Amino acid sequence: MKILATVQEGQFGNDQIKALEATLRRNYAEHVSATRVTVIWCVIPKGQAFTNYQRSQSSLVSMECVVGFPQDRRVTLLQACERDWTAITGQNSDQVMLSLIEADVFNNVLDGNRLRLSKAGNLKLQWHMLTSLLRSKLGKGYLSFRPNL
Q1: pTM
Q2: CA nearest 87: which of 19, 8, 7?
Q3: For the segment 12-30, what is each residue's pLDDT rounded down to a tens digit?
């Protein structure tokens, strides 16, 4: 299972990201499943995301779950994540979009990105992702990448 957290460059420090990752893992284990979850941070470079004509301060967290996950447990998870996320970041809850997406839909979205690229583009993307995630894990202690190639 995967969690993809998209944040703005410079928005949070490494300690905040580690705290956010810990709370996402804890809430996932408590409300969804004890299955190991991989958390990946997508860091949007400055100047590439805007909200209301200003540099965005929004965060987007997409979490994967099994097909048919109960709606009441989904709501409980999302409320817990929102409470903990805003406590750590100081963000307004309007700046945080949280979703728990069933695995088939989650993977269709990820595959859609891959399918839009040529074979050469896909290889370049895979290499970029692999090296970025490895460098980040070794240097910062968590998996992150920037979407720009």
Answers
A1: 0.89
A2: 19
A3: 999 999 999 999 999 999 9
